[in-house]
Specification:
238 residues, alpha+beta, three-stranded antiparallel sheet, 5 helices, 27% helix
Amino acid sequence: MSKKSLMILLVGVALAIGAVQIMHRPDRAFGPDIHTKTVAMGNGQRLHVQTREVTVAQWQACHGAGQCTLELKAHDKDVDYPATGLSYPDTMEYLYWINANSDTAWRLPTADEWTELAQEVMPQQADPIFTDPSLTWASAYLMEANATGRALRPSGAFSATSAGIEDLDGNVWEWTQDCYAGASGQGTKTDPARCPAYIMGGEHEAVMSYLVRDPARGGCAVGATPAHLGMRMVSDEG
């Protein structure tokens, strides 16, 4: 092979490798339009937080790409709603899809992060409806059910924090990345692949089995059973 032919071959190989790299490079303009706010946390960390929960339209983009198993139906063609009926594995499918195609390293918040983000919009503890200790569960259930209702509402229907994060006080409980410690207190040390249940961020403390999509069929909580299960993404600055 002549020197000229070898040079042409090497240039062709280099161009082919470059084309493959471009094809597999994350697309900065990829995916659904995700609005975020940057929040300064108490520990000095700056967190980019999705303004609202992942919506049905955003979820369906993942399903349409063949990466999210669950298909959701639009409640209203003109109004977007939070994506609900999500199990923990569902959230992992969505995160895998969006992280594989964007430059942002999205994740679920920790339980502590979620609590700090929501603190200013969480309802104050009301006087119990029943004072009999044996009816504490009924008192909590009725007060919480009356506070937010259980019917799913459009995205943005609830309060916003001073940082601009919306719907944290709504009736969609959000998955966190924290495994439930249980009696052993070892939850945060458990291999995520073997974690049976995760802490949910919501109006009150809740723990859900990782496979649950319908909270009425599983999980445990203080007070009313969570109405809906959804997700909100965060990413670390820097």
